[in-house]
Write a structure and sequence with these properties.
With 402 residues, the protein is α+β, with helices and mostly antiparallel strands. It has helices spanning 2-16, 18-56, 83-92, 128-132, 144-148, 158-164, 208-215, 234-248, 264-307, 309-317, 322-358, 368-393, 397-401, and strands spanning 60-65, 81-82, 96-112, 115-124, 136-139, 153-156, 174-177, 180-188, 203-207, 220-221, 223-228, 259-263.
């Protein structure tokens, strides 16, 4: 009963100073709202990292032509990677399950009737499906016969279907790539974002032989996808690929590599670094906001103690214990911060939902913000409310009533 009576007295005291109470809550609301958005963005960023690693392949390694770039990726203008390099990787490195040499040309114009769209053309062997764990949803992938005969056949992504074949079944239709016609043989399943952040579904896959000898007339590769037998082989195989290609290309320190090797763990580190920078900034803003709100709370509660000296002295004179005074002021502090935390959580959740609708894939709500909001609100209330509560409890009745 005593605790319930103290709680009611705390609520009545807060009600007498609504404006002051709201000002204290305002800082907590802002801090918790910001925290909710930060955590929601962090959850979505982590989900994207996992998705990108899965799209890349947890047992995959990419060998790219061209080196010396900050962000590794395919460069079709570099001619340092050969078919013999790819074969050497497959035959000379233990743990390589299979390879998929590729030629890549982004920004290639493709057309169907009166529609035109820029695509990424990839020349690859039929093992491309297995190499990327990426299979057709309609029709068939091209086979060894198409590859050996340099057939003009293509397998297209979902974005290409949407842009060039709206309302049309593309299987068997003629797709013009550059100055040549290709028969659409299959449609790939939706893949989403590439490890580099691009749209994988705007790709068109054609046989490697067709790409090298008939379409682009090249003798070098853009990249080689290497699949290892297990995740545990990734680091060793990647290191051995670097050593082998350096030896084949006669690269000696301090010469710069003319190739790049990238594994799934590098994709995760890169994605987390990009997402983590923004999250750190927003988290710093959240912490500063909560500290400021805590300082405001402490000062306003100290002001309240000064204004209520006679009330405190009267209660002590009538038999009120120091502990009761301490608990009442802590109740008031916790009531303000916890209420601000709940309102901040609701505001932050609304902002996160709005951001998710305006820019899909930016936020993802979860239970963590609610737990953090409750926990941090209580911490702020206890830490910054303790000094005013102790000062109120230590007031001597005679001094307070003067």
């Amino acid at each position: 009963m005593r605790t319930w009576r103290i709680f009611k007295q705390s609520v009545v005291a807060l009600g007498r100073n609504r404006l002051r109470s709201f000002l204290v809550m305002l800082g907590v609301i802002a801090g918790i709202a910001a925290l909710t958005v930060v955590v929601s963005m962090g959850e979505e960023a982590n989900r994207k990292v996992v998705k990108r690693v899965n799209n890349f392949g947890p047992t995959a390694i990419m060998l790219f032509a061209g080196g010396g770039k900050n962000v590794p990726g395919p460069d079709p203008t570099v001619v340092t990677l050969t078919v013999d390099d790819a074969r050497a990787v497959e035959t000379q490195i233990r743990g390589v399950e299979f390879i998929c040499p590729q030629v890549m040309r982004p920004g290639t114009a493709a057309s169907y009737h009166d529609r035109t769209y820029e695509i990424t053309v990839i020349g690859a062997p039929p093992i491309y499906q297995k190499a990327w764990d990426w299979y057709v949803s309609q029709g068939d992938f091209f086979d060894e016969e198409d590859s050996s005969g340099m057939g003009r056949v293509a397998v297209i992504g979902q974005t290409v279907v949407r842009e060039l074949f709206p309302g049309v079944n593309p299987i068997g239709e003629t797709l013009r790539i550059g100055n040549a016609n290709f028969r659409v043989k299959g449609v790939l399943t939706a893949k989403g974002t590439s490890p580099m952040g691009g749209d994988m579904d705007e790709r068109v896959i054609i046989p490697l032989t067709t790409a090298m000898r008939r379409t682009f007339n090249v003798t070098t590769l853009t990249m080689v996808r290497v699949r290892t037998g297990s995740v545990g082989d990734i680091q060793r195989v990647a290191s051995e690929i670097r050593s082998l290609i350096r030896e084949r290309h006669h690269i000696q320190p301090p010469d710069v590599d003319d190739f790049r090797v990238m594994a799934a763990d590098a994709i995760a580190v890169l994605s987390e670094a990009v997402a983590g920078t923004l999250n750190k900034v927003l988290l710093a803003v959240t912490i500063i906001s909560l500290i400021v709100s805590g300082i405001v709370l402490m000062n306003l509660m100290l002001l309240s103690v000064s204004e209520r000296r006679r009330e405190i002295g009267l209660r002590r004179a009538l038999g009120g214990r120091r502990r009761d005074i301490l608990v009442q002021f802590l109740f008031e502090s916790l009531a303000l911060t916890s209420s601000g935390g709940v309102l901040g959580l609701l505001l932050g959740g609304a902002v996160a939902l709005l951001m998710g609708r305006m820019t899909p894939g930016t936020t993802q709500l979860s239970w963590e913000p609610a737990a953090l909001a409750v926990g941090l609100s209580l911490v702020v209330g206890l830490v910054f409310g303790l000094l005013p509560a102790r000062r109120a409890a230590r007031l001597h009745p005679i001094d307070a009533l003067r």
